[in-house]
């Protein structure tokens, strides 16, 4: 019996190390992914919308005169990842996220998790800014710290679902955005989540790639933390590595 428990502890430790290593790999690439997504979104904004963005940013930074030339360059319409690499002030402004919410509002695509009230960009930026994953004491802690956007779903589980995820049945989906970190935190706290649409409480999320941050979201969604650990929580309410 002790041997089985020891094997389980070793397996859990190895799984946590795999998650931590993968999170650090995602962290090293998240900054570039967020920049590419921002530049791609900004390039698709119309000239009139860029003018409105310029006015809004100038108003919100009206006393920060040093940032005004940066806002001018941002809204000129030719910002690329290459230009950011050679313009430190502009890169810092973009990386701060100060222009993200106004830009999304102007394009009509601002979406927030009804749980954390964060945009997908804010959730993904935390992968970059959060404390090192090496400090986490358990896998559940990692799941409540780092999340991705998704839609609430109601899942029916048969007894056979513990052997195969194909036995899960999604019976309802809601359109209000949420995030996996908040959902896992609620699960751990045994707190019920009722979506804005009402109805029964929901405990699971259909993970999605956000169209306004496709590269960054895909990077997080395909991480071991979401692909393996969160999928395992949805599947069987346990944390264990997935095989295929």
Would you write up a description of this structure?
With 244 residues, the protein is of the alpha+beta class. Helices cover 54% and strands 9% of the residues. The chain has helices at residues 2-43, 47-60, 68-74, 81-85, 88-96, 100-107, 120-129, 139-145, 180-188, 214-221, 224-236; strands spanning 149-157, 168-173, 178-179, 204-207. Strands 1, 2, 3 and 4 form a four-stranded antiparallel beta sheet that branches. The longest helix is centred in the N-terminal third of the chain and has 42 residues, at 2-43.
Could you name the key traits of this structure?
244 residues; four-stranded antiparallel beta sheet; single chain; 11 helices; globular; alpha+beta; 9% strand
What is this entry, summarized?
With 244 residues, this protein is of the alpha+beta class. The protein contains eleven helices and four strands.
- Overall structural class, as computed from helix and strand content, comes to alpha+beta
Low-confidence stretches: none
Bin the strand percentage.
5-15%
Question: How many strands appear in the DSSP assignment?
Answer: 4
């Amino acid at each position: 019996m002790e041997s089985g428990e020891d094997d389980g502890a070793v397996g859990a430790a190895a799984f946590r190390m795999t998650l931590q290593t993968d999170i650090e790999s995602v962290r090293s690439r998240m900054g570039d992914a967020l920049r590419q997504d921002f530049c791609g979104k900004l390039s698709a904004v119309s000239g009139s919308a860029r003018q409105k963005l310029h006015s809004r940013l100038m108003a919100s930074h009206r006393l920060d005169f040093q940032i005004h030339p940066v806002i001018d360059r941002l809204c000129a319409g030719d910002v690329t990842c290459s230009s950011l690499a050679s313009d430190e002030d502009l890169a810092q402004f973009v990386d701060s996220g100060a222009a993200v919410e106004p830009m999304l509002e102007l394009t009509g695509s601002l979406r927030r998790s009804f749980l954390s009230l964060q945009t997908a960009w804010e959730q993904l930026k935390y992968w970059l800014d959060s404390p090192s994953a090496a400090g986490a004491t358990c896998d559940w802690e990692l799941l409540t710290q780092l999340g991705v956007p998704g839609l609430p779903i109601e899942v029916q589980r048969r007894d056979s679902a513990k052997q195969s995820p194909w036995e899960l049945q999604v019976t309802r989906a809601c359109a209000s955005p949420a995030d996996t970190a908040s959902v896992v935190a609620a699960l751990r706290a045994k707190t019920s989540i009722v979506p804005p649409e009402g109805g029964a409480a929901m405990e699971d999320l259909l993970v999605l790639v956000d169209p306004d941050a496709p590269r960054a979201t895909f990077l997080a969604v395909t991480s071991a933390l979401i692909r393996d650990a969160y999928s395992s929580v949805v599947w069987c309410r346990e944390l264990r590595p997935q095989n295929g």
